[in-house]
Design brief:
Elements lengths: L16 E2 L2 E2 L5 H12 L27 H9 L15 E2 L2 E2 L3 H11 L7 H36 L14 H16 L1 H24 L20 H12 L1 H32 L6 H15 L2 H11 L3
Antiparallel strand pairs: 1-2, 3-4
């Protein structure tokens, strides 16, 4: 099984409205697997995900980790092990230039949220930026990160309801305005132009009464609570064909199995922690044996990170 990793990215605290649907936070490896399953049939469908960590809660610590400690926690012990930072710093001719790659770079590091705190992530990004481009450009990059984080965590007045198209434009216009207010026009355009154009195109097509064709930027229809599985599968077949829909079915089953195994591991850890006759070290040792017996390779790294094991 692939390491669970969000290669796709997006807003986490604010709703993303694109391709006629809210772009919610999802597991990134599910995004990668969905894209791989559809690409074999000639489609490049992928899921745009938001970036909040849905499985892991914020890691409590007595003090904030240093950038080096955070680097070790994420890249050696945590869910980013075996990965390389995506995106870019958007530095050209010794100057910071608006480009989407910096949003991608920010979102890559934000994937660690839940294993480390946002303050630790910010310190790590600052350390990486200063190492790459010096103090002056590093400070400019961090000023932009702070504004981007404000966009991500902004509390919007309008509420998006997928089944009520009258809510779509107010949400879209509010998000667009807030992005420009906080980031400025050049950076808001660089970060969000593609998202905004995709939404406007999709909305116009719906308004005209014509069914838009599936595009690479549209979310892959997901099996989720409250959705009719038959309807989701029918939509997949209509968009991507029977073969790709069957591969997506297989991906769903793999993730259902992963979720079941992770829930079982969490229950086992809770059972072990409740044993008053064991010391903390003995509890860790017993859980370590369980993880080694039930998970393989990088699965063990991910499970340890999600359950906050040593």
């Amino acid at each position: 099984m692939q390491m669970i990793y969000k290669a796709a990215f997006g807003l986490s605290a604010a709703l993303m409205v694109a391709a006629g649907a809210a772009w919610y936070a999802q597991q990134g490896a599910r995004t990668q697997a969905s894209a791989a399953a559809t690409s074999a049939s000639g489609s490049n469908a992928w899921v745009t995900a938001a970036s909040a960590a849905s499985e892991a809660s914020a890691l409590a610590s007595a003090r904030q980790r240093t950038p080096e400690e955070t680097r070790t926690r994420l890249f050696k012990e945590g869910s980013l092990a075996g990965t390389e930072p995506s995106g870019e710093w958007c530095v050209l001719d010794q100057a910071l230039k608006p480009c989407e790659g910096l949003r991608t770079r920010f979102e890559y590091y934000i994937l660690g949220l839940g294993e480390v705190s946002i303050g630790e992530i910010r310190a790590l990004i600052e350390d990486e930026a200063r190492r790459a481009h010096g103090d002056k450009l590093g400070a400019e990059i961090m000023a932009l990160f702070d504004k981007y984080w404000q966009v991500r965590t902004h509390e919007y007045r309008n509420t998006f309801v997928q089944t009520d198209r009258s809510t779509w434009l107010p949400v879209f216009e509010e998000q667009k305005a807030v992005r420009r207010q906080l980031l400025g026009e050049p950076w808001a355009q660089a970060f969000f132009a593609d998202d905004e154009a995709s939404f406007k195109t999709y909305y116009a097509q719906l308004d005209s009464g014509s069914a838009p064709p599936a595009k690479s930027g549209e979310p892959v229809p997901q099996m989720e609570p409250g959705k009719d599985p038959a309807a989701v599968r029918a939509e997949r077949v209509a968009r991507y064909g029977e073969d790709a829909a069957a591969r997506l079915d297989a991906v769903d089953k793999q993730w259902d199995e992963w979720d079941r195994r992770l829930a079982t591991a969490r229950g086992e850890w809770e059972r072990i922690q409740a044993q008053a006759n064991l010391s903390d070290l003995q509890k860790q040792d017993e859980m370590d044996r369980y993880v080694k017996a039930q998970f393989q390779g990088k699965e063990q790294v991910r499970v340890r990170a999600l359950l906050k094991l040593r």
